[in-house]
Amino acid sequence: MIKGFLPCLGGLLFAGTVLAQDLPVGDPDAGRKVASQCRTCHGLNGFAQIPIAPHIGGEPEDYLAAQLLAFRDGTRAHEMMTVVASNMSDQAIADVSAWYAAHQVTATLFADEADAPEGCVSCHGTDGLALVEGVPNLAGETNIYIATQLKAFRGGKREHEVMSSISTDLSDDDIRALADWFAAVELDIEPND
User: Fold this and answer.
1) Lowest CB count within 10 Å: 35, 79, 89, 192, which one?
2) Which domain holds residue 80?
3) Residue 104, beta-bridge partner list
4) Could you read off the pLDDT of 85-106 as tens digits, one per residue?
């Protein structure tokens, strides 16, 4: 089905040129307060409330910070996230990233692992939990969100050193199959309370 056509789907959501490690140390408790502005779309626990937003609970802290920095500095654009991030200090970015990263995630795969998208699993895992640093979890993301991001890479609206070249060879059917695989994984996010 979708095996072997994709060398790696690493960094599906990764963007940004500012290094997250340049930020101050994040405080998850302070980040919980910052997260109040994220809850409408991403939920306080990081489980997306709308199909076009990603789940961010349990994502790696440096990945989350890199995305917010990219929205803030304009290397990644989104009508809502650019506005939100443009008003965030380095400390607020570090804190909210620490809050969401402190959540524990588990993924339950109900399909046969042998049918997993071979090129994706080396970075994103069979169950959609990232295996490589700087790579987001895809477990339980909506197929709408994943497909939209892959099409953005394919069309040049988003750029990434790996994803931009990989996505150019993906057909709409390939994208739909990849998105459906990860959307079918059940994701559980346990908040850090």
Assistant:
1) 79
2) 20-190
3) 190
4) 999 999 999 999 999 999 999 9
Which residues make beta-bridge pairs with 187? 107
CATH number of the domain that 167 lies in? 1.10.760.10
Closest CA to 59 of 4, 21, 105: 105
pLDDT, position 19: 66
Query: Tokens 């995630």 sit at which residue?
Result: 105
Which residue in 54, 139, 64, 71 sits closest to 100, CA to CA?
64
Tell whether 174 is covered by a domain: yes
Sequence-distant (≥ 6) Cβ neighbours of residue 108 within 8 angstroms: 127, 185, 186, 188
Evaluate if residue 16 carries a pLDDT over 60: no
In total, the chain counts a number of residues equal to 193
pTM, two decimals, is 0.86
CB atoms within 10 A of CB 152: 16
